Amino acid sequence: MISFFRIIKFALQGVFRNFWLSVVTITMMIMAVLSVTILVAMDYVKEATIASVKNKVDILVELRFNAGSDEVEGLVIELERLTEVKSVRVITPQENLEIFRQRNQDSQISRALDIYDEEENPFSYSLAIGAYDLSQYPQILEFLNQEKYSGLVQVSEFDSHEEFIERINSIAEFVNRYSLYLALIFIAISVIVIFNTIRISIYTRRDEIMIMKLVGAGNSFVRLPFVLESVFYALAAVLLVAAAVYPLVSLLQPVLNNYFQDYSAIDLRNYFIGNLLEIFFYQFIALALINTLSTSVAIRRYLRI
Amino acid sequence: MIKLVDLSKSYSSGKVAALKNINAHIKPGEFVSIVGQSGSGKTTLVRLIIAEEKPDSGQIIIGGWDITGIKDREIPTLRRQLGVIFQDFKLLPKKTVFENVAFAMETCGFSNKEIKKTVPQMISLVGLKGKEDRYSHQLSGGEKQRVAIARSLVHKPKLLIADEPTGNLDSINTREIIDLLKKINNLGTTVVLVTHNKDVVNSLRSRVITLDSGQIISDQEEGRYLL
User: Fold this and answer.
1) Residues 226 to 245 of A: which have CB under 8 A from any B CB?
2) What structural domains and CATH numbers belong to chain A?
3) How many domains does chain B have?
4) Site from A3, A21, A215, A222 to mutate, B interface, most B CB atoms within 10 angstroms
5) Which CATH number fits the domain that encloses residue B217?
C-alpha cells in the first residue's frame, strides 16, 4: 500500500516537475485525440447525410385519373400491410395542383393550366411510399406492378427511382469502405506519434531511470510511476479535447445547417452531447493502453542496469 | 565483507582484459583504498561489486552472498544492502535534497514515519541542514556529494563504496568529503574508496590495494600511493 501511494506521488511529481516535457507530450496526444474526434465527427456527418438522403427517397406513384378516394384508401391499406413499407402518404388532386403551381410559378409551364377552367383539376391522386430500406423498393414496385392494380396505378417513375436508389446505395458503400481506410490511417498515425512521443520523453529522462536502478529500486518501482504518468497524460489530453469540443461544434453547427439547408438532418452538437462520455471514455481507454504499452517498451532498455 | 576470488573481466569478446585473476578479502569495518591509474580496472571492479556487470570468471562474495551469477531480479536487493557514491553524484535532478535522500529509503519500503525521522538526521550529519528543499542544480559540487553520501547511508548499509567521490571537487571539498567518509567508517561502516588522488590516499594511512593493468600489484595494510 505504501508503494502504491509512492508510485502515485512519483507519477504526479514526474508530470509537474518535468512541466515543459509534459506540455509537449500532452500537446502531441491532444493532436492524436483531436484527429480521432474529427474522424468520429466525420463519420457521424457521413451517416447522418446518408440517412437523411435515404429518408427523403420515396416512390411517387401516380394513380389513374378515374381513381376514387375509396379505391385509394383500399390501396393504402394493402400497401401498409407490406413489411417493407414504412409510410404511405396520400397526395390529393388538390394538393398536387398546388404543388404544381408552386413549383412552376415563375415558369411558362404554369400556363399549361390555362386551358382548364378554374374548377377543373387535371391532376389525379398520388401516393408517396417510403420503405424501411433502400433495397426494399424493388419489392414494393413489384407489388404495385401486379395486374389487379393496372386499372388504378399509373407508375411512370419506376426506372429512374431504381437507378437513383442503386446510386445512393453504391455511394454509401463506397463512402463506408473508404472512410474505414481513412480511419485506419488516422489511427495508425496517432499510434506512431504517441509511441514516439513517449519514447522521446523516456529517452530524455534515461539518466533518472538509471540512477533509480543504481540506488536499488526494483524494475516495477521505476516503471510504474512512468506508466502512471503516461496515463495522466492520456487523461489530460482527452479532458482538454472534450472541453474544447462543445464550443467547437457550436461554432460549426450553423455552418452545417446552412450547407444542408435542414436543421434536423445533422445535429453535431447534440450528437457530441449525447455521446460525450462514450466517445471520450473509449478514447481515454485506448490512449491509456497505447501509452502504457509504449512506456513499458521504451523504458525496458534503460532498466537493464 | 567482500571476497574476490580469481576474478576476471574482459571486454570486446575477450580482446581487452579489464581485470585479471583478482584475489582480495576486505574485512568488516575496514577502510580500503583501491588505487590505480586510468584504465587500471578500478571502475570495472566497482561495476562488478554493484552487479552493474557480471564477471567472466571467478567469484564475488558480499556479506556471505555469492553474487557471481546473480539474477536480474535479485540485483535491487543487493544494491539496497550497499551504499554507493559516484564521481558524478548521480542525484535525481527533479527531486529535492530531502527527496533524493528519502528515495533510497522509499525503495527499501521504509514507512513515511521512519523516513521523516531518519532523513533529517542524515542530512544534518553531512552538514546540509537547512538545505532540504533545494534541488541539485542549486547546490555546489561538494554539497551534491554530501547529498549522495547521505543517500548512500540513509538505509544503514554495512558497506559503502565510493567511486572517485572527490574527482569533481576542489581540495577543500575533497578534504571535507574524506573526513566525512572517515567519520562514517569510525561509526562501523566498511568503506571502499576507489580513487587516483595521491594526497587523499597518503593522508588516510589505511589499507591500500593498487591496481595496474587489471592486476593487483600491491596490497598494504597501511599503504601509500605507489604509482
Assistant:
1) none
2) 2-54+168-303 (no CATH), 65-151 (3.30.70)
3) 1
4) A215
5) 3.40.50.300
Tell whether the model's pLDDT for residue B161 goes beyond 90: yes
What digits encode the pLDDT tens for the residues B87-118? 899 999 999 999 999 999 998 888 999 999 99
Q: How close, in Å, is residue B10 to chain A by CA atoms?
A: 18
**Residue B58: inside a domain, yes or no?**
yes
Average pLDDT of each block of 10 consecutive residues along chain A (305 residues)? Answer: 85 92 92 88 81 74 84 89 89 86 76 75 86 80 84 66 68 78 85 89 90 90 93 96 91 80 74 90 94 94 88
Burial of B120 (0-12, 13-18, 19+ CB in 10 A): middle
Residue-number span of the structural domain to which B223 is assigned: 1-75+192-227
Distance between CA A14 and CA B170 in Å, rounded?
33
Q: What ipTM did this prediction achieve?
A: 0.85
Inter-chain contact B76–A13, Cβ cutoff 8 Å? no
Contact A14 B111 (CB under 8 A): no
Q: Which amino acid is at B107?
A: T
Neighbour tally for B23: CB within 10 Å: 13
Strands B82-85 and B2-11: unpaired
B44: left (phi over 0), alpha (psi -120 to 50) or beta: alpha
- Please list the residues that pair with B31 across neighbouring strands: B191
Task: Provide the grid cell at A290.
Answer: 497505447
| Within-domain flag for B91 | no
From the list A6, A13, A218, which residue is nearest B94 (CB)? A13
3-state secondary structure chain A: CHHHHHHHHHHHHHHHHCHHHHHHHHHHHHHHHHHHHHHHHHHHHHHHHHHHHHHHCCEEEEECCCCCHHHHHHHHHHHHHCCCEEEEEEECHHHHHHHHHHHCCCCHHHHHHHHCCCCCCCCCCEEEEEECCHHHHHHHHHHHCCHHHCCCEECCCHHHHHHHHHHHHHHHHHHHHHHHHHHHHHHHHHHHHHHHHHHHHHHHCHHHHHHHHHHCCCHHHHHHHHHHHHHHHHHHHHHHHHHHHHHHHHHHHHHHHHHHCCCCCCCHHHHHHHHHHHHHHHHHHHHHHHHHHHHHHHHHHHHCC
CB B21 within 8 A of CB B8: yes
Higher-confidence residue of B133 and A43: namely B133
> What kind and span of H or E run contains B179?
helix B171-186
